[in-house]
Specification:
The protein is built from 14 helices and 28 strands. By secondary structure, it is an alpha/beta fold. Helix 1 packs across helix 5, helix 6 packs across helix 7 and helix 10 packs across helix 11.
Length: about 575
């Protein structure tokens, strides 16, 4: 039976968050995509200088050890300077989505107000374009808090750091705030203490309101090192990313891990990827990127928009691994992607389904590069595995999310918390070095994801077979139909297979006057889509009441990472 993922050749042991500042490589760094189609290269030695400048500026502006500094910036050199400068100061960085991450302004402002009230930051660092809206929201949040929340530009922080004449932020650190509301009080060194909180990471809010996850430095470093071992990161293997840096996958997996490993990074914004996904492909074909990550819907968008039928001159042979996370991966999508991208050099086994969540810093399980992709089928009750296959790929089965990363233990438990045997569906529970310390100020007590005595009860339904995890859906997004659980994700996938457009359909479940009800929301223009959705759900969930609503484009309420907010949609439309 296979064990946990081990160190792969070429990987270096135990990278720490700030080690790269000591001897930054002037030959490697981050390539930022410019609007004119070029790339701006910023070497690590220059970034290290920017980080020290930002740390000095934050100190001069009154930020102390243990303070929260929220950064509302897109992925940029200024974001990197603010994030690592906050760490160097001994404070707690907390990336927050910029306005461009949300389609609806009202939804964004409500999210921002909630994050500011929950996080109680000492300061917000942003850019001039966002400052006006943030100042107004910060004033509202401060009305219920202990103090006003200053909103400053990243340029002002840098200027203050330069004015301080290069004084190191850690040369005379202030004592940490030891009030009961601040958990960041352990240890004596506010910069290097592994027990201190090194990241306040807000969840995407797919199953509830966004919650602040308190991630210790030890957990952040453990997850970065586990990812490096899993994929084989090394300085000579570049990484490409279009993911937002306020989200765990984009931040930890595609920004912090490459920087701490000393790898070149080719960085695009989500907007740039949407406008020109072919440019993302060129990161591999022209610039030799070896690794990347994205949600499954990003892969589907890439196949639809990057003109794979006109791919002369493209070469993906440099790719060693593209991680697919954030949502269940459809085996049919994976099969299409392997065929299309394999024609231009993508090696077999380079598409890597994975599972993770902010409460475990990021990555929990993942398929190793080159390993076969297993699929399973469940019994009629949806409670036990009746078949597992790996070759050929079963396109109608449930796809593996791989094995636990090093330092992580994954179990599946019953409703009473008892560990279940292999092949039995239950709740996924995670233990190990990457599990966060808990929710900031106790978070949302109604959340189905919870921390108990060092264990993370994820609220996700899954099953283990030969130590591989197969994810099924959220425990709260299910109904009992004739004694078996039916998950929203399964019904959504079935509707796509029936002919509805991916990402244009959302299913949410609940009770209406004690009657199990399936609500199908469509952003489809075709009138026939309503009948198709109704007939498909009636066949799969025959004893439920089925409601189908056709909505204008852009009606779906989504998190900043693109997941549908099913509870919000249910409450709004039922």
């Amino acid at each position: 039976m296979p064990g946990p993922i081990e160190m792969r050749p070429g990987s270096r042991l135990e990278r720490r968050l700030l080690d790269w500042l000591d001897q930054p490589d002037p030959q490697r760094g981050v390539h930022f995509a410019s609007d004119d189609g070029t790339w701006e290269f910023v070497a690590y030695d220059r970034l290290a200088g920017d980080v020290r400048e930002a740390a000095a500026g934050l100190e001069q502006m009154g930020v102390g050890a243990g303070d929260v500094v929220m950064t509302v910036l897109p992925g940029s050199a200024r974001f990197i300077a603010s994030f690592f400068g906050t760490l160097l100061r001994g404070a707690i960085p907390s990336p927050v989505a910029p306005r461009t991450a949300y389609e609806d302004r009202t939804t964004y402002l409500r999210h921002l107000e909630g994050v500011l009230m929950s996080g109680s930051p000492r300061m917000v660092v942003t850019d001039p374009e966002n400052a006006g809206e943030i100042v107004a929201i910060a004033a509202t949040a401060a009305a219920t808090g202990p103090r006003a929340i200053p909103v400053v530009s990243s340029e002002a922080v840098a200027a203050e750091g330069r004015r301080a004449s290069g004084v190191m932020a850690s040369s005379s650190p202030r004592p940490p705030d030891r009030s009961p509301s601040n958990p960041n009080v352990e240890g004596t060194d506010p910069v290097r203490d592994p027990a201190r909180i090194a990241l306040l990471q807000f969840t995407s809010g797919s199953s509830s309101l966004a919650k602040g996850v308190a991630v210790p430095a030890s957990a952040l470093e453990a997850n970065i090192n586990a990812i490096a071992r899993w994929l084989g990161f090394s300085p000579g293997l570049p990484v490409a990313s279009w993911l937002p840096v306020h989200h765990d996958m984009g931040l930890v997996g595609c920004l912090l891990a490459p920087i701490c490993c000393g790898s070149d990074l080719w960085s695009m914004s989500p907007t740039a990827f949407i406008a020109d996904p072919g440019r993302y492909v060129q990161c591999f074909s022209e610039h030799g990127a070896a690794f990347s990550a994205m949600p499954s819907f990003g892969l589907g968008y890439l196949l639809r928009r990057a003109r794979m039928d006109d791919c002369s001159g493209l070469d993906l042979s440099s790719v060693q691994g593209i991680v697919l996370g954030a949502e269940r991966t459809d085996p049919r999508l994976l099969q299409r992607a392997q065929a299309a991208l394999g024609a231009i050099g993508l090696r077999p086994g380079a598409l890597l389904p994975a599972y993770g969540l902010a409460e475990s810093t990021l990555a929990v399980t993942g398929v190793r590069p080159g390993d076969p992709l297993g699929t399973i089928r469940l019994n009629a009750g949806g409670t036990k595995v009746i078949e597992r296959r790996s070759d050929p790929l079963d396109t109608s089965g449930i796809l593996t999310c791989g094995r636990a990363l090093s330092g992580t233990i994954v179990r599946v438990v019953s409703e009473s918390g008892e560990e279940l045997p292999d092949g039995t569906v239950g709740e996924v529970v995670v233990e190990g070095a990457s599990v966060a310390a808990g929710y900031w100020h106790d978070g949302n007590p109604l959340s189905s994801t919870r921390f108990e005595e060092g264990r993370l009860f994820t609220g996700d339904a899954g099953v283990l077979v030969d130590e591989e995890l197969y994810l099924i859906g959220r425990m709260g997004d299910a109904l009992k139909v004739r004694g078996r659980p039916v998950f929203a994700e399964d019904l959504e996938l079935a509707l796509v297979h029936a002919g509805l457009q991916p990402h244009k359909v959302v299913v949410t479940l609940g009770l209406v006057d004690t009657t199990p009800t399936v609500l199908v929301l469509l952003e489809e223009e075709r009138e026939a889509a309503v009948a198709l959705a109704h007939d498909t759900i009636r066949r799969l969930a025959p004893t439920t009441s089925v409601l189908v609503r056709r909505l204008p484009a852009g009606s779906f309420v989504r998190t900043s990472s693109g997941k549908p907010r099913r509870r919000v949609l249910w409450d709004h439309y039922v």
